[in-house]
Amino acid sequence: IPRISYRTASMNPTEVKMSQIVMPCHSNHRQELSVGQLLKWIDSTACLSAERHAGSPCITASMDDINFEHTISVGMVVNIKAKVNRAFNTSMEVGIQVSCEDLFYDRHWRVCHAYATFVTQRTSNGQKVPLKPIIPRTQREQIEYSVAAERRRVRMVHDEIIKDLLFHSSIQQGDNSEVGNAVAAVKTKVESVELVLPPHANHQENTFGGQIMAWMVNVATIAASRLCQDHPILRTIDMFTFRGPSQIGDRVLLRAIVNNAFKNSMEVGVRAEAYQGEGPNRHINSAFMTFEVLDDHGKPCTLPHIRPEPLEGERRFQEAIARKKIRLDRKYIISRTQGEVPLSVPWEPRNQVYLSYNNVSALKMLAAQNNWCLNSEKDQVRLYTLERKSVLSFRVESEVNIPAHRAFCLLAELRNRPSWDTHYQKCELIHWVDEDDFLYRVVTPSGEGVLQDFILLASKRKPCSSGDPYVIALRSVSLPTHPPTDAYNRGEVLCAGFTILESKNDMSLMQKFST
Predict the structure, then answer these.
(1) Would 120 be classed as within a structural domain?
(2) Which end of the chain is least crowded, N or C, by CB within 10 Å?
(3) Is 293 exposed, middle or buried (0-12, 13-18, 19+ CB in 10 A)?
(4) Are 272 and 284 in contact (CB under 8 A)?
(5) pLDDT tens, 408-432?
(6) Greatest CA separation found in the chain?
């Protein structure tokens, strides 16, 4: 019997929890919870959280990438927790944590986490419903609230990243010597139709987003099985974006095909369209899913090569390679904790968005820590320190008699910094990436008599909404055009920068961070 709990006095008011015992009817042939069923539970829990905050019906707009870390067996309990991290004007981000519980051995482990975007259903006259802001209560909520703006930024450029990578990169074809033994992609093609019935719809008579995702997982699994002739395991799902709603009575047409097969994994593309009667097909969703096949020892098996169809098949084949590169970049840069990421990650156009995300979110997370210790104070300038896992961070804080937007403009231009900061002897702009991101080479004095230089990615952000600070984040990167030289000691910066918050009477609270 499912159990759904709502808030208590100490809980986040938007927090919703769902617990489900995995029954045989929820499982696949391995007696493990099917991913489709899990996605339906995730979507339902997240929707309840969104509606609790909005006070009105909500619709799933998108679901970020999901990486499934563990499987769940029949008889175990799935615990899902969802809460709204941040509300923007008419959309909100809901964070979801999924864990598994073994009742007999009292063991718990994490299965996955996800971020979903929900929007309120328009009013009867077609107007969007504005959302009230979220007020973070804990350090963790403050971090999620702050970084949600960066995740939203990445979502908005997700499709452009793929296009840019395909445009700027010379992606290699598969090994042509293997084409004769390759499986024709057309053999993996799947087409299936589902009729949307009342049990598939929510209280607004729209098809559950989780139900559509479950149908898409089903056809993707069939396509993957046709390539490997085995039972594949779904490892990751790229971002789901719902392009339009579906209602009771719709026919949902689902198409899937293996886009590309790598050594130990394959990407399956899925497209969902809805139609009624003789009406036109409406494209409602597309997704890309990565599958593996495990041997008896739990190790990934080598997969057959794929031979793409001409034209469209070749395009999908190339785009799958691009998406794999992006997944590796995300795993390398974003999925790790800040201390695990190498100091100077190589910068290149394909990973710029994720390096910028990591740069700004790392500074926001550092600023949100609540265990800073006041070390000294002089002339209304306060010095704080924070020690975490043998890493010492500093925060210098003062209120300045200058508007925040003016302070932001002055500090964001690093080339002016040598005129007022004695630690900056020289600063040159290497590359103007875009309006918010820049690459600099900075030269500073060194106590050893040899000058020190840094290659820095500077990322600046204006406030996303009222109460947000201006942010200027700095971190070291490496560039093949600017290798270390004997004339300088190459320095590295893990996390540094400024936050500037608008204060009263055209003053601003400025904080400088360094790690």
Answers:
(1) yes
(2) N
(3) buried
(4) yes
(5) 999 999 999 999 888 889 999 999 9
(6) 80
Domain of 489, CATH number, reads: 3.30.530.20
Q: Which of 103, 134, 165 is the last residue of a domain?
A: 134
CATH code for the domain of 94: 3.10.129.10
Q: Which amino acid is at 19?
A: S
Please state whether 203 falls in left (phi above 0), alpha (psi between -120 and 50) or beta. alpha
Residue 319 in any domain: the answer is: no
Kindly write down the DSSP assignment for every residue of 65-125, as one continuous string: -EE-----BTT-EEEEEEEEEEE-SSEEEEEEEEEEEETTTTEEEEEEEEEEEEEEPP-TT
Domain end (from 100, 134, 168): 134
Q: What domain range is 510 assigned to?
A: 350-514
Average pLDDT over every residue of 48-60: 92
User: pLDDT tens, 285-310?
Assistant: 999 999 999 888 889 999 999 999 98
Both tokens assigned to 91: 């959309």
What is the value of pTM for the model shown?
0.84
Number of domains in the chain: 2
Q: Contact at 8 Å (CB) between 274 and 297? A: no
Q: Nearest to residue 316, comparing CAs of 327, 308, 324?
A: 308
Exposed/middle/buried for 485, CB within 10 Å: 0-12, 13-18, 19+? exposed
pLDDT at 125 over 90: no
* Residue 344 domain-assigned (yes or no): no
Answer whether residue 1 shows pLDDT above 70.
no
DSSP string, 5-28: E---TTS-TT-EEEEEE--GGGB-
